[in-house]
Amino acid sequence: MKTLPQPSDRAFVPFVSVANMMRLVHTIGLERMLIELAGYIEEDFRRWPLFDKTPRVAAHSAEGVIELMPTSDGQQYAFKYVNGHPTNTKSGLQTVTAFGLLADVSTGYPTLLTEMTLLTAIRTAATSAMVARQLAPEGAKTMAMIGNGAQSEFQSLAMKAVLGIDTVQLYDIDRAATQKAARNLAAHGLKVVQCATPESAIEGAQIITTCTADKQFATILSDNMVGAGVHINAIGGDCPGKTELAPAILHRASIFVEYPPQTRVEGEIQQLAEDHPVTELWQVITGAAEGRVSPGQITLFDSVGFAIEDFSALRYVRDRLDGTELFQQLDMLADPDDPRDLFGMLGRARP
Ligand code: NAD
What is the 3-state secondary structure (H, E, C) of 247-307? Predict the structure, then answer.
């Protein structure tokens, strides 16, 4: 059992590798982690006005995007480095990879460095489910999962753990991706149905999740595919020029977003006029704005992923690490005996 560095020993930064993140997930249990993390995210959405907020800083290329996502609540500061490269999978690389850092605002010293590829999938799924808890029709039991890549199993299990769905209907243009997701989900207590068309995946579903990757304006859902009363959880459109829904759906739906200045650039609503009304999710959570108001309403979570969700995930991991063996101490910060004698510290390594 290891304890996290105390303020007197801040030269060492706890680092969670991919291997240790996998162990942490198994130690806690994935579904429990999704539920607990949804709670942390909801807690941080409740104190939304406290946070420093800025649209993420994106460097675009023909193949994808690299982004930095910073935020702070005044006590702790966090950032995530994340990429999105839809063509990566063709060369055996992932579409999305990430790592992130948490720091103490009062000293500026980092308090956690961690892999965030797995953690992003878990936090994105926890956010989807936390939002669906607010917006999905009552008693939702069936979800459609369109796009069966890296995020899809996490998305499905979060809706089961947090919302109680019992059936997932899978569809992907690549049949092998659907088979992979069905295999992975087989022993997790969900009825898993593999569908040959997006229409059959949507049939009877109260929640429709779209999580595809393509750097273009795509139409994963066309207007005639979406009936009254459903909740759409649109994950995949998260970049300028990369969307999943036909604009007509957006005109029929009540649209809920994380942080409008970022979503207007990156989300499905980039297809709409700049003043098209949207509701900020944190206001639904605090009760300042209405969520679902009628059974026939189409609710849409135009998810792009916001820094505060990563902040919550980092805060959660840091809270769950103490007393475990699941981190290494990184010698990442210089610690001269006299803080002003950085030069003198070099003497420690003199050959
Ligand atoms: P991935 O490449 O592993 O999977 C994407 C899947 O979509 C692939 O299996 C592909 O075959 C499928 N697909 C592509 N076009 C399709 C279509 N027309 N119909 C059906 N399926 C189609 O990617 P991933 O890691 O699962 O991520 C998916 C998307 O989610 C990416 O665009 C990523 O940027 C986005 N994402 C968003 C958030 C967020 O917070 N909103 C977080 C993580 C990832």
Answer: HHHHHHEEEEECCHHHHHHHCHHHHCCCCCCCEEHHHHHHCCCCCCCCCCCEEEEECCCCH
Nearest atom (ligand 1) to Cα of 220: 18
| Percent of residues, the chain, with pLDDT higher than 70 | 99
Instruction: Summarize pLDDT for 23-56 with one digit per residue, the tens.
Output: 999 999 999 999 999 999 999 999 999 999 999 9
pLDDT score for 8: 58
| 115-120: long-range pairs with CB below 8 Å, 24+ | 115/16, 115/17, 115/18, 115/21, 116/80, 116/81, 116/82, 116/310, 116/313, 117/18, 118/18, 118/21, 118/22, 118/25, 119/21, 119/313, 119/317, 120/80, 120/82, 120/96, 120/305, 120/310, 120/313
- pTM of full prediction above 0.90: yes
CB atoms within 10 A of CB 198: 22
What is residue 228's DSSP assignment? T
Residues 6+ apart with CB under 8 A from 166: 141, 142, 160, 189, 190, 191
Query: Which ligand 1 atom minimizes the distance to the CA of 239?
Result: 34
Residue to mutate (ligand 1; options 157, 180, 235; most atoms within 8 A of CB): 235
Residues paired with residue 168 on neighbouring β-strands, in sequence order: 143, 192
Over residues 137-146, mean pLDDT: 97
Percent of the chain clearing pLDDT 90 (strictly above): 93
Could you give the C-alpha distances from 26 to 13, 128, 203, 326, in angstroms and in order? Answer: 23, 21, 34, 11
Q: Domains plus CATH for the chain?
A: 7-118+308-348 (3.30.1780.10), 137-305 (3.40.50.720)
Distances (CA, A) of 308 to 54, 278, 292: 10, 19, 23
Q: What is the pLDDT of residue 7?
A: 61
| Contact (Cβ atoms closer than 8 angstroms) between residue 212 and residue 218 | yes
Asked if residue 131 has its Cβ within 6 Å of ligand 1, the reply is no
Using DSSP's 3-state secondary structure scheme, residue 334 falls into coil
